[in-house]
Amino acid sequence: MSRSPDHNLPSQPKESSIGQNHHQEEIIHKLAMQLRNIGDSIDRGMVQEDLLQQEVREALAHCVLVFFGGVHALQRFLWNIRWM
């Protein structure tokens, strides 16, 4: 059974591995901040979309009320003419 050539290499000095760990932590922190920013922008987009949908619902409700109010007024008018 032969050993892999990497197996016989000496391990990295402690200072180098500490520096590498610090560099990896910085990269992880930067990635975490980017993910947070992406999540925040998605949340803002969803909130804006929800507000738009709410505005559309309110406008539709207003139109329905005006329409049925007009229909009701027309109905009363025609009913009054009928009894004249």
Automatic annotation (TrEMBL):
One GO cellular component term noted in the UniProt record for this chain:
peroxisome
UniProt biased composition (Polar residues) = 7-21
Q: What Pfam families does its record include?
A: PXT1 (PF15214)
Q: Which GO terms describe its biological process?
A: positive regulation of apoptotic process
Q: Which residues form a coiled coil?
A: none
The annotated region (Disordered) lies at 1-23
UniProt protein name? Peroxisomal testis-specific protein 1
Q: What is the lineage of its organism?
A: Eukaryota, Metazoa, Chordata, Craniata, Vertebrata
